[in-house]
Design the sequence.
């Protein structure tokens, strides 16, 4: 069904359009003036001024691996994040612990852990799915590189971004 | 103005005038005609007739030919380009043109005025715009008014025709 | 031929071209900065201090991009069109007096007695560039852009021509230097309070002059395809309009041609209505060459103010619909300009000088 939109009846002053045009131009010149004399401040001059200290708690930046208080890499190479990752950005090659190792009962550790930051969509599903609280989205957002290889974060890089996470469950550190 | 410019613009006019007929593509013909008009206007200007020269550009090149181009652009040009050349018509046309040219040469050769050099133009005391305006509104006032009425009638006619409801 | 005349003309042509092309580049920059400020942004401010070298970067980008010619176009006309868009816009400047005199040389390239008609004639040739670009691109949107622009330009040339008739009724000359010298003697066309302000005739004449000024300015907006009337380009409807198929410097010529047309348009408005290079209290070039330079500076400052208005209007008003544009041109401005001629004629007849 067609809907007829009723047009408002304009009086002669409105039909001349000139007052409307002039008031519109007054608005734009006001914006121009305020901006010219720095009265409005909207834009952030990005590389010089940054948003870092105002970043919200729940900001989702680059995913990273973390160590616990004792310095152990918390990842146990279960590969759940590799499975859940929607763009398949994560690649894990698991390694096995030697028999006499202190953490031998964990069985596996990531030998290689690559996240392709060109593919990563910062969805945070890896953090959500991780049973070991080993992978977290940190607040790094300026991920740059000159080549595709530069944009792949390997295990060292991920640990460097992640650092140490305090106050997490330390279930593997208890006595055997 | 130096004769070099006269020969240059005359040459341009002739070449592009021929191009109007020779070109198979109507757009190319129309544009050639525009260049031809420009040459003509330059020739007028070399005779110090600035007003006529400029009007030539303003009216013919600037308005009339734009409308022509406008119409031509909406045509199917492929058909025009594919059309075969009618050899008999070409030869006949060339024959007529040649006969006419020979006739003109003959007449000009006979004319006594054609033997003499043209007397130099008297440089006008007033602007040519002024003189044209003066002539139009004094000596030729009636024809001018009549032409105005004719154009008005034509304009109204066009509006009436285009406004008519189609049944 | 007089060699002094030839040399000075050549110098004037080169200097004016250099100045105008420089202004053109900075108009593009000003457009970007002013539009940004109007929209509460900052605009390009990275290249050099305050981004002042941005035009150089833009030019480098235009020149270094791949000059690509699509396969489906009509090659010769495709290459011809950008030239035809740029040349008329620059040529118009030849008759505009941009200064009084410098070392006794009048600051106008060609002082011909049909000055304003020359402007209109050359400006009307500008439509060829757009029409040919639209046609030779062999694609829908450029073609629609070309068709729109040709009808738009023809329609608005009418009100453009009619709007200036009151000015020439008053002066009785088509020579643009005469227009300026008349305004020096009798005050600017639209400013009766300058000079002898007790004269009733001047105040009465200012009414048709003001109407002329408004109609002429709006018609110039339409002729230069600036925003309230930028239907030939109309990004939202026609992709890029007539230059959709163009890239690199060929697009650059269309783009910059629009700005040059803007500059010439403002220069003509300044000459006809705003007193040309004249400013009350500033003597002309016969008082010394420094005053001659000041006159040139005054002229280009006035042009710059008008360019600001052009940009300001562009970033304020929305685009007209096509039927509204045509209605405005044929039903509104055409009639106003006609009536305006009668008003001016009546005032001139009943209040002779």
Sequence:
């Amino acid at each position: 069904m067609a809907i007829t939109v009723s047009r408002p009846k304009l009086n002669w002053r409105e039909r001349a359009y000139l007052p409307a045009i002039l008031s519109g131009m007054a608005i734009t010149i006001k914006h121009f003036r305020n901006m010219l004399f720095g009265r409005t401040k909207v834009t952030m001059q990005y590389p010089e001024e940054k948003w870092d200290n105002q970043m919200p708690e729940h900001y989702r930046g680059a995913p990273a691996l973390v160590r616990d208080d004792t310095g152990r890499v918390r990842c146990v190479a279960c590969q759940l994040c590799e499975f859940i990752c929607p763009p398949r950005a994560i690649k894990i090659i698991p390694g096995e612990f030697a028999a006499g190792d202190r953490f031998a009962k964990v069985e596996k550790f990531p030998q290689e852990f690559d996240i392709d930051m060109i593919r990563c969509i910062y969805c945070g599903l890896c953090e959500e799915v991780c049973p070991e609280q080993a992978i977290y989205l940190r607040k790094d957002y300026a991920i740059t590189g000159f080549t595709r290889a530069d944009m792949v974060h390997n295990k060292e890089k991920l640990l460097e971004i992640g650092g140490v996470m305090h106050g997490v469950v330390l279930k593997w550190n208890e006595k055997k | 103005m130096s004769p070099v410019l006269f020969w240059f613009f005359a040459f341009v006019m002739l070449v592009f005038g021929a191009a109007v007929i020779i070109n198979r593509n109507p757009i190319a013909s129309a544009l050639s005609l525009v260049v031809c008009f420009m040459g003509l206007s330059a020739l007028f200007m070399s005779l110090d007739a600035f007003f006529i020269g400029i009007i030539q550009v303003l009216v013919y090149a600037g308005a009339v030919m734009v409308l022509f181009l406008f119409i031509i652009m909406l045509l199917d040009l492929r058909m025009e380009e594919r059309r075969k050349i009618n050899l008999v018509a070409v030869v006949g046309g060339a024959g007529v043109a040649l006969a006419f040219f020979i006739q003109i040469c003959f007449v000009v050769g006979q004319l006594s005025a054609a033997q003499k050099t043209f007397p130099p133009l008297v440089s006008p005391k007033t602007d040519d715009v002024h003189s044209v305006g003066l002539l139009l509104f004094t000596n030729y006032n009636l024809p001018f008014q009549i032409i105005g009425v004719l154009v008005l009638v034509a304009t109204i006619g066009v509006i009436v025709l285009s406004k008519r409801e189609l049944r | 031929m007089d060699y002094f005349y030839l040399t000075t003309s050549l110098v004037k042509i080169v200097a004016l071209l250099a100045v105008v092309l420089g202004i053109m580049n900075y108009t593009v920059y000003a457009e970007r900065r002013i539009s940004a400020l109007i929209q509460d942004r900052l605009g390009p401010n990275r290249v050099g201090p305050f981004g002042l070298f941005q035009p150089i970067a833009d030019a480098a980008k235009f020149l270094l991009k791949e000059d690509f010619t699509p396969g489906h176009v009509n090659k010769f006309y495709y290459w011809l069109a950008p030239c035809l868009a740029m040349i008329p816009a620059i040529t118009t400047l030849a008759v505009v007096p941009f200064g009084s005199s410098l070392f006794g040389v009048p600051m106008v390239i060609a002082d011909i007695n049909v000055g304003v008609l020359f402007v209109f004639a050359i400006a009307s040739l500008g439509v060829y560039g757009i029409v040919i670009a639209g046609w030779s691109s062999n694609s829908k949107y450029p073609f629609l852009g070309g068709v729109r622009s040709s009808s738009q330009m023809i329609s608005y040339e009418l009100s453009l021509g009619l709007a200036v008739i009151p000015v020439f009724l008053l002066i009785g000359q088509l020579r643009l230097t005469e227009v300026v010298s008349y305004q020096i003697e009798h005050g600017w066309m639209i400013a009766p309070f300058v000079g002898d302000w007790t004269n009733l005739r001047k105040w009465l004449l200012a009414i048709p002059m003001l109407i002329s000024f408004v109609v002429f300015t709006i018609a110039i907006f339409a002729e230069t395809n600036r925003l309230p009337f930028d239907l030939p380009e109309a990004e939202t409807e026609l992709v890029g309009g007539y230059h959709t198929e163009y890239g690199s410097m060929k697009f650059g010529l269309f783009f910059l041609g629009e700005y040059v047309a803007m500059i010439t348009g403002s220069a003509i408005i300044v000459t006809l209505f705003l007193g040309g290079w004249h400013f009350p209290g500033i003597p002309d070039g016969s008082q010394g060459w420094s005053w001659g330079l000041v006159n040139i500076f005054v002229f280009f400052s006035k042009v710059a103010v008008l360019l600001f208005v052009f940009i300001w209007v562009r970033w304020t008003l929305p685009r007209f619909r096509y039927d509204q544009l045509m209605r405005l041109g044929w039903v509104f401005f055409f009639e106003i300009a006609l009536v305006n001629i009668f008003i001016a004629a009546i005032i001139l007849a009943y209040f002779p000088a």
Notes: The first strand of chain C starts at residue 101 and ends at 102. Chain C has a mean pLDDT of 83. The two ends of chain C are 40 Å apart (CA to CA).
